[in-house]
Design a protein that fits this description.
- This protein is an alpha+beta fold.
- It is 45% helix and 14% strand.
- The protein contains eleven helices and nine strands.
- A five-stranded antiparallel beta sheet has the order 1-2-3-5-4. Strands 6-9 form a two-stranded antiparallel ribbon.
- The chain is globular.
């Protein structure tokens, strides 16, 4: 098994029995997860591999936050404490956490009813409200991981990035269908940015504690109900309403790049009530996330700069969304503030 974790050394730190089986879990772009079965039960073993979020002290702080959220009734799966009371085990210089196994499945917005979309929005609102309650007030003014995005993307930087990516596409051999789509989207996006460069949003508004990576692969359902929000590695201080809009753009994007606006609207109304967010905050967030999408090429950078193709299947819909969103800008705003 590639990247096999040191199970013997790890499990000796826990009262979790001896390993019987350990299988990699496919989902996850930055860290590694394993389905672990021992003589005492089933667990999810997480190897915190991403250097940006793998600091043991920071992980412990995030783990304490999820435990407090669980006390408020938010569906989470806090890690188990080892024999020394810590929730992070460091073996061979690598950080690991052992979580209870949660039976469930991931559900995209297309699999949710309007009522379930509203429940999803209320859940994220409860997360934001709960984090404000459980996080120490003295830390609310600075992030747990990285600075919140107070500045919006500069189109001059984006134009330079587009030129660089186009050159990489031209050099790629043998050319394939992904290269053709990438070239088309890059040229299309450059034209859109030239047309809308004067709409760059101002600095971000009010910030608060957010999950940081709320999307379908980080939410498990049991039946029709959310069973656990997982992967709190990006917990930090950011504009809260922007996380709500960003999550909707992932949950409710259709394969052709359009958003399911009726579902997004049900979600947004429930989020506003639960988080006590105003329509004007959501409208500003829609504008900033639209601009962010217009200037963002992380999937192409992974593909051409790093040779990492794991995000390639997401690229067709995500790249089409920026174009559709620009054309349907007013309708998208209405869906989030109505």
């Amino acid at each position: 098994m590639p990247h096999a974790p040191p199970l013997g050394a790890l499990l000796r730190q826990y009262a979790a029995g001896s390993a019987l089986a350990c299988e990699p879990v496919d989902q996850g772009l930055l860290n590694r997860g394993y389905r672990l079965r021992t003589t005492r039960g089933r667990y999810f073993l997480k190897h915190h591999f991403d250097p940006e979020t793998a600091d043991p002290a920071a992980l412990e702080r995030r783990h304490r936050a999820t435990a407090r959220l669980a006390g408020l009734g938010v569906p989470v799966a806090p890690p188990l404490a080892a024999r020394d009371g810590r929730t992070v085990a460091v073996v061979g210089g690598h950080a690991y956490a052992l979580h209870p196994w949660i039976d469930g499945r991931h559900r995209h917005g297309g699999q949710l009813t309007a009522g379930q979309c509203a429940r999803l929005g209320a859940l994220l609102g409860a997360v934001h409200a709960g984090l404000e309650e459980v996080m120490p007030p003295k830390r609310r003014t600075r992030p747990a991981t990285s600075p919140h995005p107070v500045r919006s993307a500069d189109p001059a930087d984006t134009f330079a990035l587009i030129d660089d990516l186009l050159a990489r596409v031209r050099r790629h051999r043998p050319a394939d269908s992904f290269d053709a789509l990438a070239r088309h989207r890059l040229l299309e996006r450059r034209a859109l940015l030239e047309r809308h460069a004067d709409r760059r949003p101002p600095r971000g508004g009010s910030v608060g504690w957010v999950h940081g990576d709320f999307h379908p692969f980080n939410l498990l359902y049991r039946g029709d109900a959310p069973a656990a929000i997982v992967d709190w590695d990006r917990l930090g201080v950011q504009p809260r309403a922007e996380e709500a809009v960003r999550a909707a753009a992932i949950f409710f994007v259709r394969p052709d790049g359009r958003l399911d606006l009726p579902k997004a609207s049900a979600y947004a109304r429930a989020y506003r009530r639960a988080a006590q967010a105003t329509p004007s905050q959501l409208a500003a967030a829609v504008h900033r996330v639209w601009w962010e999408r217009l200037n963002d090429f992380w999937m192409l950078r992974w593909h051409y700069e790093r040779g990492d193709t794991r995000a390639d299947p997401q690229f067709p819909a995500a790249s089409a969304l920026a174009v559709w969103w620009t054309r349907a800008y007013d309708a998208v705003c209405d869906a989030f503030v109505d």
